Fold this sequence. Notes:
single chain, alpha+beta, 2 domains, 5 strands, 60% helix, elongated
Amino acid sequence: MSRFDRYLLTQYFLMFGFFSLILLLIYWINKAIALFDKLISDGQSFLVFLEFSILTIPPIIPIIAPLAAFAAAIFVTNRLKNDSELTIMQATGFSPLRLSRPIFLFGLIVTMILLVISHYLIPTSNKILLKRQNEVAASLNAKLLRVGSFIHPQNGITFYIGGMSSTGIIEDVFVLDERNESQEIIITSKSGQLLKDNDNPMLVLEEGIVQNYDVKSQNLSTTHFQDLSYDLSSWSVKERLVKSKLLLTYSSFELFSNHKLVSIMSNTSPTKVLEEFHSRTLTPFLALVAALIGFSTLMIGSYSRFGTSKQIFLGIIILIFIKISESYANTLMLKSEENWLALYMPILIGFSIFSFLIFLASNQKLIGNKKQSREIV
Length: 377
């Protein structure tokens, strides 16, 4: 590797780190605010919040990496053009294809890092997060079992128990649910138990009354019951694990080697399991494509006092087109397992566009470079 290649590679990585940090902070703060409200209002410590917020970072990285790689490629290439460094190197015999070697190496290294994150770090962090969510949710029982105290586990919820036997039976239960502004629900029961159903806390009550008050019509309806199960999962900080979230906890090896078993365990379709596996491979390569697109779009024009806004806008349009093709490929994949090759269509499109732009950059006459030369004069 020549000194010039090392110089460019260093510049690309410096700006990639800068833009990644900015984007990561934006995404992380957005998630952290909502997470802070859930955890702190549920009585959890700041250390629990910090642990949960750190575990949410790995899934964000593959999302922001292509944007950061594109921004780094645009910023560095634009600065090198304005400082005439690329012009000097081209005058010494470096072709646009030769100049693309550092950006290709940069994108390839970023892709390798993202492959490790997507296939190993993200499933591992999701497993840890799931385990910690279950542990925090389990602590809800201890929080609710306070005899003689009115507890507010969530805004609009009031919970009270009058006593608790040595066998774990709670007595004189009172629940007030005011989360719905147009409806108030009051549940009273002589006895009950706090149980778990598929890791979700359940309140099982016996011999009680449910009073449903409609605020608008001011009507009160009552229902007597012998047994009543009340789901408490919405009271806890634990997010209910939708199918896609449960699927994210499996390793890539499990997804690939036994996707039918994983589909049964996660209650999803086999095509969705394969789509998840191939997406973990596809997404990292989008960072390479984004970097190449950012570089090649700026190479198709020579210096102009009007700047490179047109080329940058063209690069953004190309990225949007690639993202649209990615969505279309995902739709095809979910229709049939045989369409898995379609998922890699955005990468093929990206490399094809990059090759075409480099061809134009190597043949400036095809894009009317004479006009641009008059602008310089």
